Structure formats: C-alpha cells, structure tokens
Amino acid sequence: MTGATKVREQPLVLVVEDYQDAREMYAAYLQFSGFEVAEAGNGVEAIEKTRELLPDIVLMDLALPRMDGWEATRRLKNDELTKHIPIVALTGHALAGHAEGAREAGCDAFVTKPCLPDALVAEIKRLLDQHRRKSDNGTDAGRVPKSSKKRT
After folding, report:
1. What is the pLDDT tens value at each position of the chain, 152 positions in all?
2. Side by side, which strands form the sheet with 57-61?
3. Domain extents for the chain?
C-alpha cells in the first residue's frame, strides 16, 4: 500500500462524486487551496481508492451509481484499515433526516450541495485539525462526537 507509507506534503482528499463536472470543480478548488486530490466516480471505486491511497479525508456524495455513498461509508467505517478516515457527506438533500442518516452511516460531517467552495475547505480543515488533535491525544480519531458536528 503506497498510500500508507508515503509521507505527503499536503493532505490528500478523495473526492467521490458521480458527476464529472462537479468532481473536477471540487478537485480544482481543493488543489488551488493546497490539497492533494484523488477522484472516484462511484461507491465501489470509493472503497477501492480509499483502501489503496488511505486519504486524509473523503468527500462522499451519497447518491452514487454501483454502490451509494451510504453503503460505501458504512463499509469504510467497518474496515479496520479505513475506519479512522474522516468522511464528509456531500448531498443535495437538506432534510434533517438525511444529516442524521449520514451520521448513522458513519459520516463525520454533512455538507449540503451546492456549497460555497470556501465553506467546504473550512469544513475539511476543521475535520483534519480535529482528527490530528485526537490522534495526538491517543483517542479514537475515527469519529467525532455529535456535539461537535455541524451542518453547513
């Protein structure tokens, strides 16, 4: 696993989005903001790339072909290799039930599309900082307490 042994200069974000234009837009803005970016177009690819690359964070669209983001998130959070990686749910559904469902599936945060690029970058940085602090303290960095989660 090259991702596990490679030391990165910048955090790696895996963008999982089935619409190529949206995926490329997120990737371009994240690269502009100083992140390394990898891309996946469906849930199966998301699991494969997460296991291969071990990104620092995953942006997961919930409505995906082949395997939806809900199931891909559950599988990643139940995998010893990947369960520590923060996952941000990206969805066009702003209903409160979707946010709670995303958390129950294992998402660490929930962002409603369309979102402002700066707000998405701020949420990524917040989760990465939180993940680093938990790792430094030796606590479970895989999940954040509900009280610290926010909707954007």
Report:
1. 444 445 678 999 999 999 999 999 999 999 999 999 999 999 999 999 999 999 999 999 988 999 999 999 999 999 999 999 999 988 876 555 666 667 777 788 888 888 888 999 999 999 999 988 877 776 554 443 333 333 33
2. 36-40, 12-16, 57-61, 87-91, 109-112
3. 10-139
Mark out the alpha helices in 33-95 (DSSP H runs): 43-53, 69-77
CA nearest to 25, candidates 86, 90, 99, 87: 90
Convert 23-50 into a string of H (helix), E (strand) and C (coil). HHHHHHHHHHCCCEEEEECCHHHHHHHH
CATH architecture, domain 10-139:
3-Layer(aba) Sandwich (3.40)
0.90 exceeded by pTM? no
